[in-house]
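Workshop exercise sheet. Pairs work together: one partner reads the sequence aloud, the other fills in the structure field after running the prediction. Swap roles for the next sheet.
Pair: D.N. / O.F.
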Amino acid sequence: MMKVLLCGGGNAIHVLSSYISARDDTHVTVLSLFQGEAEKLRDAIPEEGIRCINDLGDDVYGKPDAVIGRAEDVPKDLDIVVFALPSFTHELYLKALKPHLKEGVTIGAMPGEGGFDLCAIHNLGSEFVRHSNLFALETLPWACRIIDYGKTVEVLGTKKEVEVIVSPKHGTTKNQLVEDVLHKLVGRLPAFDPADNFLAVTLMNINSVWHPTISYGFYRNKDLAVPFDEPPLFYYGADEFTGEMLSKISDEVLELKRTLLERYPSLHLDSLHHVSEWMLRSYGDDIKDKTSIYTMLRTNKGYRGLTHPMREVKVDGQTKYFPNFGYRYFTEDIPMGLVVTRGIAELAGVETRHMDEVIVWCQQVLGKEYLVDGKLKGKDLQSTRAPQRYGYTDLDSFMEVNHYLDEVPMKNVDGHVSSPAEMVAPAQ
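Structure field:
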């Protein structure tokens, strides 16, 4: 019997609860630490379970064995823990669950923003994570929505392929984890494409470059106190400056890649590409004009009609719109995305002038302070997943403690090749 703990209470948890609880070989517990949510969900679920309207076949009905609101009540000897909730809550759940988890457990996030592994290692310990399975999906396996809370959820579309970051426990292969665990959770689709490692995916976090930079490019010269008559177009509203900024920030990330590979020649970062290449791979012929990032943004069929996140307000009886800087494009893609990449670049001594320009503007509209005088030392650093937030001050320790250099020789500045045993972890 596979013991599964699902953390959260939203759309994805409804689908997972239905799918996994419908299996005969699972025991499913849902945990929500948000006040009142566990009781609300428990009371709403009917005897026949949550109905999942499945785009790939017949409807699925599944009822979790328990819905709880305290970490102390989780079953013993859990096999799998899945986070399907906002990334800023991951640390809350990891801290609460730490006394109740045993080495060898599989822990994953759907989806996982940059630095999920850093957060897990910081809260659970490097050796615990080394002897356990860690995974994160780049996106949810499906587009889904709750129709009737606790009763009915609909899968609008199952994705054909999703990139998965897998860090298997020592002695286990990535393929074993994908086949033995992930497909049991979500079914035969989507197909999972394992990425090189957590570091490669953290640095290739496209949302962390895309969303903040496009927002900065659009709003940089606008009076934010003046409302819009309608939500402005996000991608189709980008200008040439924005396209150039995206390219320059991507150049900075690739310079970081070059620096890391020069210092650690056996490091695998093959999945880290320029954003222009990512866009061509992702959208191909859906893009009418492939001349530049600017033209690709404005002629990509997949981006048509998408708008900036906005807040609707009434001004003199008329509906107007202000930017919603509380949206995940800012609250997640900065502290859990671009700031993480910036922190790694700082450890590697790579200049990030254009990245800094975007972060400084974003932290101003967020009312936060991450970057001060060119260093990640602001008062709100503790709310990020930057390496500096976890106490890392040198690149070698960061690379070793987070298992990026397992069985990889490490070339120091003076050319000396160090063994993993020579590296010292920062204080936890």
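Discussion prompt: The first helix runs from residue 11 to 21. What would you look at next?
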